[in-house]
Amino acid sequence: MDVMALERRFGGRRALVGVELEVRAGEIVGLVGPNGSGKTTLLRVLAGMLRPTAGTVRVAGFEPVAEREEVMRVARFAFAPPALLENLSAREHLEHLAALGGGKVERGEVARVLALVGLAERADERVRAFSFGMRQRLALALALVPRPRLLVLDEPTEGLDPLAVLELRGILARLRAEHGLAILLSSHLLIEIDQLVDRMLVLSEGRMLFTGRPAELTAASERVRWRVSDAERAIELAAARGLAGTRVGADELEFAAECAPLAEVAEWLARGGVELHEYRRTRATLEEALRARLGAERSA
Amino acid sequence: MSVRLESLRLVRSRRPLVAAGALLLFLVLMLVGFYTYAQSRTGGAAEFRYTFENRSYFNGLTFALYAFYFGFVLLLPIFAATEGGAQLAGDTGAGTLALFLTRPVSKARLFFTRFLVAAGYTTLVTGLFLAVALALGLVAVGWGDLRLYPGVLQMTDRPQSLAQGEALMRFALVWPAASLALLAPLAFAFWISSLAKSAVNAVSTAAALYLVLYLVAEVHFFAELRPWLFTSHAAYWRELLQETPDLEALLRHASASLGFTCLFLALAFRRFRRREEGA
Amino acid sequence: MRRATRERWLEGLLWVLAALLLGHGRGCLGALPSFEPAAREPGTLRLLTWNVGGADDGTPHALERDDLAHVARVLDESGADLVLLQETGGSETELLGHLGPRWMPMPGRGGAMAFARRGQITRWSTPLARAVGVTWHIEDRTFAVLGVHASAFSAKDRNRELGPLVEALLEQRADGHILAGDLNLDLDLDKRADLFSNDLALDVESYNFVAERLEDAARHAGPTAEPDRRLDYVFVSRAFTVRAAAPWRGHRIGTMDHEPLLVDLAISGAR
Q1: What is the pLDDT of residues C112-128, one digit of tens each?
Q2: Three-point CA angle A122, B13, B1, nearest 5°
Q3: Does C238 touch chain B (CB under 8 A)?
Q4: What's the CA gap between B72 and B65, in Å, rounded?
Q5: Any idea what DSSP says for residue C118?
Q6: How large a percentage of chain C has pLDDT more than 90?
Q7: Chain B neighbours among C 208-237 (CB < 8 Å)?
Q8: Where is C144: in which H helix or E strand?
Q9: Chains with 3 or more CB pairs under 8 A to chain A
Q10: CB contacts, 8 Å: C195 with chain B
């Protein structure tokens, strides 16, 4: 999937501005952003349901609006909340919808996928009796039959219990590893994203806030903290060595990640009459790093 | 394959049951009316009145004709409007349209499959309604020859009579002719459905507009508008019950009905294939 | 072909089909049929019936002096062989003056009048005050013709009038029988609700009575009087075959509310 300089307007409002995205086979890309950031709009543009105002979009080499059928032969989309046909059972969903457009479904594929998502025992019940979590599972199952080359999931973990979330992560990781699927999944819960995705795109008010590996987002937030016996004296000694520190507690100081190593610091602090009780590296969580970015973006 | 899916969805929805119940109730009420009208109008002095002077006139075929005619004028188009309105707008409002648009199936196929299933359903309901009316007439009264008088019955322009066998054959032809006439309100409802965002809005708008156009055609002031209203052509199948049907008039009205059907389908399809989803 | 192009073609096909089918159906989409005097088959007899009165703010009145010349012109241009008028209001002499000597008049009662351009007409007595009964001798045949203006306000009166009138007509020994005029029976055969009859049931009976005995020649011709009523009729016996029948539209003037109704009849030989 390739998205270049994508823009989408709704009247005078710009829902997406200058968005660029690339998803390759065998990788999982996360799409992150607060509510109203444009995630669903982006997914609908990728599915050919909305036309871009500007920019180009290619999914497996096809243009989604004009060549939607070709896109849907290789890609599968699951939007949130999962909209299903209330009067049909889970099995009927898979059997009928998978066959739409002449899709070939292998024998036993439906049963296998239902088992994979944990719906095997409820396969013949009408969907109207399903809980939200079960509907999410069925939506995922629909996205897997027939197996696509690209999987796009909108908030796939919403409504799932922690165990189910773990199972989903396992399924997606296996699909990537065993079948080389390209996966794009959106979420507003970062804790699920950062452990699963290879790269991520962060949107805020329709603009790209960050694109890259999750580790790159948090790397900039790395710091070193000293807990010392005399904070004032320690700051003087550090300043004499060209290290700028800030006091973050009664006996705790914080320095940039590039400050001197532990052994060196301990030695010249001791020579200056200060005991070093603790030396540790800290890094912001993904959420903290993102919040900091968002805050910086809004102030700008 | 999508025909099977749409048929399954239709069968499992409540719409066929509601339609069947309403039409059956209508037939029973018509039968009660047939039996009690004359007596109530004459205070018990006569069993039958004006066009029912002759007892042989009131038979199962006449009842079936009356019941089908009045049911056709208002009930069946409303059911057609309900079915057409529920199709596209139902999935749009429920968000389930995305289920289909994220499959490798064209909007054309989605659209025409739904119309085909809805048209088939309408045809089936029409046929069943006619068959049940005939059966009820047979059981309640018994069949005879079909004798028609102009005026109140408003089916023919001069006294006519069709032998029982011939009348039944003509009724068999009335079924496809009436079904074809119902395609126009069905397609009209499809058009409304392509514009609406919920099934409730689509169905109520389509039914209301149909009733308005029907009533406009009834009012003398708008006599010149009548040829241009699709509701005016719907009852052309009555020509089949003439002793000598005017085939040319029949074909012209059928063409007009089919023409309106194509017109509304063109409008609906244009809207559906060009619109964005989730905008 | 790309899918989007295919869909455009499909839509285009629907538009074309709509245009073709609506075009084919335009016979029932177009204007109401109107008589074409020029298109006359040889050997036919042309009959015209016309209520030449009017209604001024709902108050009916007979033929007005100002309209005499117009009526005479219409009769002349129509090519009719026999004319039956209603609501002439005693202006028969003046009307004849406009028509000229080619026409043979036969006044009836209550504003009903007959004029013949071809053949000879002799009168016979009718049981109604607003009627004219003539025997029409033309081309070695004899036809009994009754021009009628039935009650405009009471279905019961119409019901009472038409029975004896029809019987009186059919009692005439003739090669064929014609009943024509303003019968004020607005049955509205296209199921629309009637606004002008005070008892539709009786009007239906009246129509049924006549229609069982004679053929309604202009049954497909549409309305004959404002605003959308078919009040004027020509009923013929089996001696005739109807070749053309329609109101001749666009010839009402002033406060007139009826169009002239014209019928071309061929003599079929049956009696």
Answers
A1: 999 999 999 999 988 88
A2: 75
A3: no
A4: 10
A5: S
A6: 48
A7: 208, 211-212, 215-216, 219-220, 223, 227-229
A8: strand C141-149
A9: B, C
A10: 220
Given a cut of 90, whether residue C85 has pLDDT beyond it is yes
**Model confidence pLDDT, tens digit, residues A39-82:** 999 999 999 999 999 999 999 999 999 899 999 999 999 998 88
Residues 6+ apart with CB under 8 A from A64: A45, A46, A47, A48, A57, A71
What is the pLDDT confidence band of residue C109, given thresholds at 50, 70 and 90?
confident
Confidence bin at A188 (pLDDT 50/70/90): confident
What's CA B164's distance to the chain center, in Å? 24
CA distance C156 to chain B (A): 13
Mean pLDDT of chain B: 85
Cβ contact, residue pair B259, C14, below 8 Å: no
pTM for this predicted structure: 0.78
- The ipTM of this complex is 0.84
Q: For residue A72, list chain B residues with Cβ-Cβ distance below 8 A.
A: 102-105
- Taking contacts as CB-CB distances below 8 angstroms, the residues of chain B near C190 are 154
Q: Residue range A224-240: average pLDDT?
A: 91
Terminal-to-terminal C-alpha distance of chain C: 69
Pick the CATH number of C39-267 from 3.60.10.10, 3.40.50.970, 2.60.120.10, 3.40.50.1000: 3.60.10.10
**Residue B34 confidence (pLDDT):** 73
d(CA C261, CA A256): 107
A-B contacts (CB, under 8 Å): 79
Are the beta carbons of B256 and B233 closer than 8 angstroms? yes
Give the best residue of C9, C16, C21, C197 to mutate against chain B (max B CB count within 10 A): C21
Closest-CA distance, C209 to chain B, in angstroms, reads 9
- Three-state helix/strand/coil letters over B128-177: HHHHHHHHHHHHHCCCCCEEECCCCCCCCCCCEEECHHHHHHHHHHHHHH
CB contact under 8 A, B8 and A88: yes
Pick from A108, A142, A109: nearest CA to A127: A142
Tell if the CB–CB gap between B159 and C212 is shorter than 8 Å: yes
Instruction: Mark yes or no for CB contact C4/A66 under 8 Å.
Output: yes
